[in-house]
Amino acid sequence: MMTVTKLAKQCGLSRSTLLYYESIGLLRHPQRTSGNYRAYGDAEVQRLQRIVRYRKVGLSLSAIRAVLDQPRGGAASVLESRLTDIDREIEILRGHQAAILRLLKRSRALKRTEMMTKEKWVAIMRGSGFTDDDMDRWHAEFEKSAPEEHQQFLKYLQIPQAEIRLIRDATRKVHR
Asked: Which positions ≥6 away from 2 have C-beta within 8 Å?
C-alpha cells in the first residue's frame, strides 16, 4: 500500500495531478486506512503507470480513459490514431518551418536592400573624392586581388547580372 505522495513521486507526478486523475475517475478511488488516508494498492499503481505512459505519448485524458476501460489489447487503434495525428502535426510544423524560413530569407534580403545600393556606394565614393578613373582602378584592383569577393560585392549592391559582367570585363581589360 502506498500514500498519495509516495505514489505521485514514484510516477513522477505532482500530488495534485494524481488527485485530479482520481477526481475525474481516471484513477479509481483507493481504499482508506483507519486514519482515513488513501492507500493505493498494486492495481492502482499499475493503472497510474499506464496513465503516465499514455500521457507521455500525447494521448488526451479521454483517450486514456477509453483505452483503460477497454479489454487488454484495445489500445492499438487509439495509438494508431495518435500516430496519424502526430504525422499530421509534423506535416503542419514542417509547413510552418518552411514559411518561417521563407520569411527570414525575405527579411534578410530586405535588410540587404535597405543597407546599400549601387547609387549609394557611388555617391559615397564620389563624396570621398573618387573620380571615374579612380573607381575603375578600385574595381580593377578588387577584381585582380579577390575576384569572387568582387562578384559578391557587386551582387550585394544589387547590380543586375548583365551589368556585373560588363564591370568585371572592363576591369579585367584595364588590368591587362
From this structure: 10, 39, 40, 41, 45
In angstroms, rounded to a whole number, what is the distance separating the alpha carbons of residues 98 and 90? 12
- CA Rg value for the chain: 35
**pTM of the predicted protein model:** 0.53
Give the helix/strand (H/E) hosting 169. helix 161-175
pLDDT above 70 covers a percentage of the chain that reads 93
pLDDT band of residue 48 (cuts 50, 70, 90) is very high
Distance CA 120, CA 105 (A): 23
Closest Cα to residue 40, out of 129, 51, 59? 51
Nearest-CA neighbor of 65 among 30, 32, 22, 31? 22
The C-alpha atoms of residue 78 and residue 66 are separated, in whole angstroms, by 8
pLDDT bin (cut points 50, 70, 90) of residue 106 is confident
Q: For residue 3, how far is the Cα from the chain centroid?
A: 41
Distance, in Å, from the CA atom of 58 to the CA atom of 52, rounded to the nearest integer, reads 10
CA distance 155 to 35: 81
* Nearest-5° Cα angle at 35, 19 to 51: 25
Long-range contacts of 16-20 (CB under 8 A, 24+ apart): 18/48
